[in-house]
Amino acid sequence: MTLDLDLMKEQALELSRYYFKGFKARLTHIQTCASMYLNFTDKDPDADVKELVDESYGCLRQMQESYKSIPFEDLADRTEFRPLFTIDLLLPELKESMDDIFVRKNKRDTVDLETDITSIRSMGKTYSDSINSLLENIRAYEKDFTIGFTDYDNRTWNLKEV
Questions:
Q1: Which tens digits make up the pLDDT trace of 99-150?
Q2: Which fold has domain 2-159?
Q3: Where are the domains of the chain?
Q4: 159 in helix, strand or coil?
């Protein structure tokens, strides 16, 4: 059993290397800022909403930077990393949807933004569920096993689940 446990630990460490703790919070912040932006600009077209726009694109940049560090070419044949590939493909679509609202001022086109965010969240959940399942299996043998994850502020968290 030691060999299986060691392999599971190795896989958990590898999966955690590309896990972005707080990713869902970044998506929620983008969605909230877009909603507030639309609300404010509907009431006052000259409202000062620069901070909302800056925060939204700041969240997107954090996610994009995180994904730039993933060696996709090395992971291409690994099915456990497929959700990351999908998210990487969806990030440019998310930016387009954000541009529709924040740049092109298309105030009625929030469906694409919501769809993109929902799709990305779904893939993120698939990835985190696979990590949690693996961690649960490991803890059947080693109950105090934790793993380190880095969040969007580059803080490291030692967690029993993601």
A1: 999 999 887 678 999 999 999 999 999 999 999 999 999 999 998 888 887 7
A2: Four Helix Bundle (Hemerythrin (Met), subunit A) (1.20.120)
A3: 2-159
A4: strand
